[in-house]
Amino acid sequence: xxxxxxxxxxxxxxxHYARRVPAAxxxxxxxxxxxxxxxxxxxxDPRKVRAARAAARINSELEAYWRDGLRxxxxxxxxxxxxxxxxxRRLGFEYISAVEVSQRPIExxxxxxxxxxxxxxxxxxxxxxxxxxxxxxxxxxxxGLFDEFETLMKASLRTMSEDQLRxxxxxxxxxxxxxxxxVGNKAVAQLTRADALDFQxxxxxxxxxEDMEIETANKDIGHLxxxxxKVEHAHQMQIGPIFAQMRIEGGTTGQRxxxxxxxxxxxxxxxxxxxxxxxxxxxxxxxxxETGLRLSEACNLTRETIKxxxxxxxxxxxxxxRKMKTEQSERDIPLxxxxxxxxxxxxxxxxxxxHKSDSLSALVNKFLDSKKLLREDGQTLYSLRHTFEDRLTAxxxxxxxxxxxxxxxxxxxxxxxxxxxxxxxxxxxxxxxxKLPAV
Length: 439
Prior knowledge:
Layout lengths: L1 H4 L2 E4 L2 E7 L12 E9 L7 H42 L7 H6 L2 H13 L6 H8 L12 H8 L1 H4 L4 H22 L9 H18 L3 H22 L25 H8 L10 H13 L3 H5 L6 E2 L6 E4 L13 E4 L2 H8 L12 H14 L12 H12 L4 H8 L14 H11 L8
Antiparallel strand pairs: 1-2, 2-3, 4-5, 5-6
Helix pairs in contact: 2-5, 6-10, 8-9, 8-10, 12-14, 12-16
């Protein structure tokens, strides 16, 4: 409260909030000094305690007004700039700044003036601005970096589901928010290597003081590097790869630990072991244990992709309104053992968790932990996928078949259509769990 108390002055026995408009906002707020009564008498609050709280409210509203003003000004500046670029293209030229125009060969400069004369637009100010580059490019600040990056990535994001978009957006927004904490809301074009070094040092201090994971820091650095390089290229900013080689050494990827197959058979698949989980959550676990599906792949199965009446009952992993993790993720997997029994009871899939795999993961992991069924550090529900892969390795399944079941890339030239459903089922039956619970 002490800083806000500095904005308080006594006038006619009443505490008043008074603050000079910062230079950054002066262009659209010409009032000079803002004065507003707190309506709290000095005699009732001599130590400014209540008045400081009132000042905090006034200050918060004022700063929000200033920020909105900046955003509005930025939007208008962007609109002016986009229009002048369109005008330049309409007149047959690339829009460049006045400084760049002056540096072009004299022949090109003359062509621009001749274009104005030929179209009889010598006194047309918008046309002059378009051909002579008199409208400056709006400054892109860090607070606008993500929106600009998302716009540039729009084509790549078109197949993502809302849940996938949320997962894609959030870590990038967090990285920018953390960067702003360190360097402030700078213009992207003014960022330097020193800013990146300050951010790296900030993260190093957090890793030590708060026991944060190094990989968390490196993810922030990686996201910022990717966003800045993409935006820099699009806007020809030439700020350079300021985050290159900034990763902090010593991090680990946090590889999940597989369950022992015997533990899955004797403990996870024991009758009553999963009592307390709702039917859909329990049956997703059964499905994953026999198929190695990613959790999101299991949650987004539908009646159209569950083929129980086929000669070889199977599930089809398809996009279904979401982007596939890899090209190889699209695959068909036979149903055997407890997975087949579970899916007979879920012919429409798992509507409760469709596009909500994170919620299911949190629920099941909490349940398994409470039942002491996560015996090693790093084990989660997803560990069943690693167990599935280990079981294929144990029976020496061909690499091509294992890759087809896991949805991994097969690192050899691709010929033919790959293993058939019958071939896949033959190998899955070799590793199917034998003692099955009531599903």
